[in-house]
């Protein structure tokens, strides 16, 4: 993820493009592990990853960062609204009902968004901004997204 992110940011810097980084945290995932064991949690994570991939373009990237956290790198977005549209798609996809061996599971997600170059020019800064925005989204309840910058949020 870090290597690919550096390539995408380098290309955006050369060509004057923009990049969106979405930090996705699954709300209530601990409950799934506690109730259905780690194998149930693992099955859910695989389904979540497939769902996230279905919401993005081929040139974008989805990576599991650890635990129940994922990052989505949006290569070559035109404006922050593009990142907001993808965040809404992700939240909708993750809000659906997951069924494993007759067991129905529902989860929610909190998404933080940062954008290159406004929120940072390297992946570490973008990750920090998106993570901070994700915690702000979590404070407002499940199934929400927030931009790092209030200005970008208002524009989107």
Can you offer a commentary on this structure?
- The chain is an alpha+beta fold.
- The chain is built from 5 helices and 7 strands.
- The chain has helices at 2-15, 29-54, 80-94, 123-139, 150-155, and strands at 18-27, 61-66, 69-77, 98-100, 103-105, 108-116, 144-147.
- A 5-stranded mixed sheet has the order 2-3-1-6-7, with helices on both faces. Strands 4-5 form a two-stranded antiparallel ribbon.
- The longest helix has 26 residues, at 29-54.
- It is elongated and about 50 Å long.
- The mean pLDDT is 91.
Question: Could you give a short description of this structure?
Answer:
Helix content is 50%, strand content 28%. By secondary structure, the protein is an alpha+beta fold.
Give the spatial strand order of the biggest sheet: 2-3-1-6-7
Rg from alpha-carbon coordinates: 15 Å
Number of strands: 7
Mean pLDDT: 91
Which consecutive residue ranges, at least 5 long each, have pLDDT under 50?
A: none
Shape: elongated
């Amino acid at each position: 993820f870090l290597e690919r992110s550096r390539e995408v940011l380098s290309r955006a810097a050369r060509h004057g493009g923009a990049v969106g980084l979405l930090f996705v945290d699954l709300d209530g995932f601990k409950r799934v592990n506690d109730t259905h064991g780690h194998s149930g949690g693992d099955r859910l994570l695989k389904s979540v990853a497939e769902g996230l991939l279905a919401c993005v373009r081929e040139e974008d990237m989805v990576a599991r960062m650890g635990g129940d956290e994922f990052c989505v790198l949006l290569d070559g977005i035109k404006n922050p609204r593009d990142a907001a549209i993808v965040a809404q798609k992700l939240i909708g996809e993750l809000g659906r009902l997951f069924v494993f061996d007759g067991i129905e599971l529902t989860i929610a997600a909190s998404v933080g968004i940062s954008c290159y170059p406004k929120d940072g020019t390297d992946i570490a800064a973008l990750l920090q901004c998106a993570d901070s925005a994700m915690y702000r989204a979590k404070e407002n309840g499940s199934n929400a997204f927030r931009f790092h910058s209030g200005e970008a949020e208002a524009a989107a």
